[in-house]
Amino acid sequence: MTDRYAVFGHPIAHSKSPQIHAAFARQTGQDMCYEAILAPLDGFAASVTRFIDAGGRGANVTVPFKEEAFRLASRLSPRARRAGAVNTLTFGSDGTLGDNTDGAGLVADLTRNLNYTLAGKRILLLGAGGAARGVVEPLLDQQPAALVIANRTVGRAEELAELFGGGIRACGFDAIDPAFDIVVNATAASLAGDLPPLSPQVFAADALAYDMMYGRDTPFLAFARGHGARAADGLGMLVEQAAEAFCLWRGVRPDTAPVIAALRT
Ligand code: NDP
Question: How much is the pLDDT for 191?
Answer without folding.
Answer: 87
